[in-house]
Design goal:
Layout lengths: L9 H4 L21 H21 L5 H8 L3 H7 L3 H26 L2 H17 L4 H5 L9 H22 L9 H14 L9 H8 L28 E4 L5 H11 L9 H8 E9 L2 E10 L4 E9 L8 H15 L4 E3 L7 H7 L14
Parallel strand pairs: 4-5
Antiparallel strand pairs: 1-2, 2-3, 3-4
């Protein structure tokens, strides 16, 4: 009877500590791994990351293999025991979180880049159910994980702190490792429902804000300087009035092509769910078009920001407004495709998740 089949987990399905392993050794070096094998390993890591977030690191092996679209045998060829898979998931996520620091600094002002990175870090901590138990399990496979985390994320956070301090947005005497450990502890003790910084973390972060110039500073870290002037306010308008000429001019600048005479208003009103226009006192500085299938899927097309207004978070603001209104229209998914150099902007700054996709060139 199916009801009598025991729950299968990586730990009890293949007892590698008892007798001979059922997983054949591999003579294939990592550099010569076949493309399909690498694809399967990546799929297993992505599936395990999702399953671990929902069910913890003791989730059944079959659930992970099923989510990856592979068989149990494939799971064990790549990850002979649970510890291998746990380590693989956490180290790849640590690496991605560390890399996001530089990507966010390239896309956003220093203070906003710091805030976005901290949001990513607290989600990473809050969604890792069972990690603390795994680290305390005495399995030697996990011994290096704490040092790996602090060794990667401490310098990444330090880069963000230095940039924000130099911009006059935070105090300049914050130790990145102390802050990292404090945020991790508070996030783990009281995780928010969506993984965002909980009230205690937000209170901690409020203490980072720049102190009055009269306050003493600790030696050894870069001094802060105030911004020369506050940036002009940006107004975001959903389905706001735009002229064909100003959208054409913005696109020509943003995508580096010659002037065009596209009839934007005709296209927008006939084909789009909506669009977002960003303006300052001098005119249009940002624009994104949002099309849809009339049901559950909306698509972001060609986010554009004027050169004079870049590195102020306007692109992220355009996507946030598009996301809000697409959800209000009943859409379940917001899609985007992009060139590789925009990966940090869309995945890290805007919060899109990487997916497989296909494309056919029609002309």
């Amino acid at each position: 009877m199916w009801n009598n089949v025991p729950l299968l987990t990586i730990r009890n399905l293949v007892p590698l500590t008892q007798g001979r392993s059922t997983v054949p050794p591999s003579n294939e070096s990592p550099r010569r791994a076949r493309a399909d094998a690498r694809k399967n390993a990546d799929a297993l890591l992505a599936a395990a990351r999702t399953v671990f977030a929902a069910s913890g690191v003791d989730a059944p092996a079959r659930e992970i293999a099923s989510a990856a679209g592979v068989g149990i045998g494939t799971l064990y060829r790549h990850f002979p025991n649970r510890a291998d898979l746990v380590v693989g998931v956490f180290t790849t996520e640590i690496d991605a979180t560390a890399a996001a620091a530089d990507e966010l600094l390239r896309a956003l002002p220093p203070g906003e880049a710091l805030d976005r990175w901290i949001e990513r870090f607290t989600r990473f901590v809050a969604t890792k159910q069972g990690l603390s138990a795994a680290l305390r399990s005495c399995d030697p496979a996990f011994d290096a994980l704490p040092a790996y985390l602090t060794g990667k994320l401490g310098p990444a956070l330090g880069t963000l702190l230095d940039a924000a301090a130099a911009a006059g947005e935070i105090r300049a005497d914050v130790d990145p490792l102390d802050l990292l450990l404090a945020m991790g502890d508070l996030s783990h003790r009281a995780p928010s429902t969506d993984g965002s910084p909980n009230p205690m973390v937000r209170l901690l972060l409020d203490g980072l804000r720049a102190r009055p110039a009269s306050a003493p500073r600790a030696p050894g870290r870069t001094g802060s300087r105030p911004s020369a002037s506050a940036p002009p306010s940006i107004r975001y308008e959903w389905r706001g009035t735009v002229t064909d000429d100003e959208v054409n001019a913005l696109h020509a600048e943003a995508f580096e092509h010659g002037p065009s005479d596209d009839r934007w208003n005709d296209h927008l009103h006939r084909l789009s769910l909506g669009w977002v226009a960003a303006r300052d006192d001098d005119g249009l500085v940002g624009f994104v078009n949002v099309v849809w299938d009339g049901l559950a899927h909306a698509f972001v097309l060609d986010t554009a920001v004027a050169g004079r207004a870049r590195r102020r978070g306007i692109g992220v603001g355009l996507i946030e407004v598009a996301r809000e209104h697409a959800a209000a229209a009943g859409c379940e998914w917001l899609h985007v495709d992009f060139e590789d150099h925009l990966r940090g902007f869309y995945l890290d700054a805007c919060g899109f998740s990487p997916t497989d996709a296909g494309l056919i060139r029609l002309r």
